[in-house]
# Entry
Amino acid sequence: MSVEEAVTGEANRDLANWLMSKRLEIERVMQERLGAAAPAASGPEAETLRRFRTFSSTALTRGEAPRPVLDGLRPNERRVMALLTCWAEAAAQLAGPDAQAVESSLAPLLDAFRLSIRTTGTKRKTSGRPRATRRAISAAIDRVADLFFAIDVDSGEILDANPAAGSALGVARDALIGIEFNSFVPSDAQGPWWTSLDTIAEGQENHVFVAAMQDREGRRIRLEASATGFLRSSRTIALIVARPDNKVAALVDARPASPDRTHEQLQTSPV
# Structure
C-alpha cells in the first residue's frame, strides 16, 4: 500500500485550523513533556516536525494524505516518531474533552508519516548479525531493570536506550536517541562520564564509576554505573549499565570511585 493510499477519510478543516492556531501552545506543552530531550529550535528535527505539521494540515484539509516530503532529511525513525507522538499527545491534552477525537484523527497521519520515513531513500542492510538475533538482544536489553545507554564515545551521542532509562529520566526512551548524554547530566557531574568515555575510547574494556544524572524536571539521580567498550563499524560505543543508588549519600558528589573511598563509604553507610 502506498503512502498516498494509507490515509483517506472525511476532511476536517476545523481541526486543521485549530492545530495551526494552537501551534505555539502545542510546542510549549511538548517542551514541558520532553525537557532536555526536546528538539532544538532549528535543525533537522525541527524541520521534520514542521513538515509533519504541513503534511497533517494538508491531509485534514483535503481528506486524504499526500506523500510527506522528506527530501534532504535523514531522520532517525525512532527519535522522530517519539517526538511526533509527543506532539500529538500535547495536542490531545490541549483539546480537553475532544482529546479522543484529536488522537483518532492524528493516529493514521502518524502511521503514514512513519511509512514515508521508512520508504524514503532507505536500503536494508544485509551485513552484521542476523536480524532475528539483533531483535533478541534488543528484547533482552528492554527487559533489564537497570538503566541502559549505548553512547558514542567521541560525540557523546545516545545511540540507544532501554525503557528503564526513559522511565528514570521521565521521557520516552526513543526520544533520547540522537541527543547528547550530558543533556541529562548536571553540569557539575559531567566529569565522571567524560572520564569513563575517554577510558573506553583509549582501549580499556570496562570501567566502573559513580555518577549522577537528572530527569526532565531537574531532579538528581545518583548512580552506580559500568561502561563496556564495543567496536562497531570503526566506531567505539560505550555500553552503559547504571543502577540508581540512594543508600550511599556520598554518591551525590558524582566523583569517580577509588578503592579507599569505596571502603570509607561502606564503613560510614547506615546499611
